[in-house]
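Researcher: We're teaching a course module on how sequence relates to structure. For the next exercise, students receive a sequence and then see the predicted structure as tokens, so they can try to spot secondary structure elements on their own. Here is the exercise chain.
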Amino acid sequence: MKRTMKLCYGLLFSCLFMALLFQTTIGSKSAFAALALPGHAPADFTQIRPDTPKGKLETITYNSKSIGVDRKAVVYTPPNYDPNKKYPVLYLMHGIGGNETHWTTLCSANKILDNLIADKKAVPMIIVMPNGRATAEPPSTNFMADFNYYANLEPDLLNDLKPYIESHYPVNTGRDYQALTGLSMGGGQGLNFGINNIDKFAWVGGFSSAPNLQPPNVLVPKIQNTKEKLSLLWIGCGDKDNLITGSWNLHKALDEAKINHVWYLDSGVHEVPVWDNNLYLFAQMLFKPAGSVTPPPSIGNYDGTQPVSMGMGMPGMGRGPMPGAGAPGGGMNTEFTATRDKSDSTSKGIAGKWIAKDGDNDLKFDFKVDGTKFTGTIENTQMPGAIEIEDGTIEGDNISFSYERKMGEQSFKMKWTGTLSGFELKLKRSLGGGMGGFGGGGMPGGGR
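Model: And here is the predicted structure for the students to work with:
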């Protein structure tokens, strides 16, 4: 009888324990369900909290057979990291002109995750920040000349970096535990590579994606034709970002195709605060049950019709546009002094060959004047091929012209004005409209 009673009490205790465990589990999911993300992060979300446990940053070197060189990446391991535990992993890419350190120096990835994990708002995760410029070539003084190298990161990421991380860190290798995103050029990489490889990544995003972003008619069918479903597809951008068109077009195409995604409009330009805020919100949705987190409401305003800012935000300058922000090569809104090319000693006036310095690059001009007709070419020695100038006008010693420059699927117009002054030609370059600007906090440098 006593034995029977003990068994009954034991069974009752087990049932109560299981019920409590079940209730706790459901309760945690209910807590997730109650988590509605704010429209924007709090003001101190990138600040170091003295009493908050800190994750660790380390720079790793791995051999890339895809590129043919040893390459570096920065790895963040979360606070209270346990090498015997399996962690999900986020691959986080920077913008053009940056490197593997920019998400923790220019931006605040490690501080954001430290604070989110301490507040139990984000799942502890490993973050891998590669160098998105995937080439054996040494860095160029004109980083815009490196545009095409960023597509090379896909095989390097999949075939070299990812296997290295999975063999050196306790990573859960299932696709449900793999995420991919980035800012600007890295945003385009995140969306392109993630949608190209939905079988490997269930969580995909892009912040302020640059014109390397593939067009909707390429990306949308890939999502429709795959067997796997994305747990999260995030498209975020500042409402005054002059690169917003690519993100907006993809968002509208996804809407038309009835593909579930998060469209988040921040209030800002192409700048660090927008990228940090996107990461703050995006990270809270990662590796959690479907529907357990309500996406953030947009705080920006854009419907595809209003003009966007031609300025670019700079680190530490708040959220407003910063016209003529600096970058290698002097940026878009820049003045130059051109001198007559030594090979052209016979030309007179504005006609003929001129050369000017743009950072470490040479800009070569070949102008032709026929009465009031002004034509010619401009060439950047860092970028192959001469560009024919358009809309050329000349009036006495003053000239103006423009041309269209294409990057990926988008283009923008450059405008030039100039005045002949003695033996020099004083020139001004500005962004005339359309698209322009990439990650790294400034305008594209070294442009033609």
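Model: If you want an answer key for the exercise: Residues 334-434 form one domain. Residues 1-33, 310-332, 433-448 have pLDDT under 50 and may be disordered.
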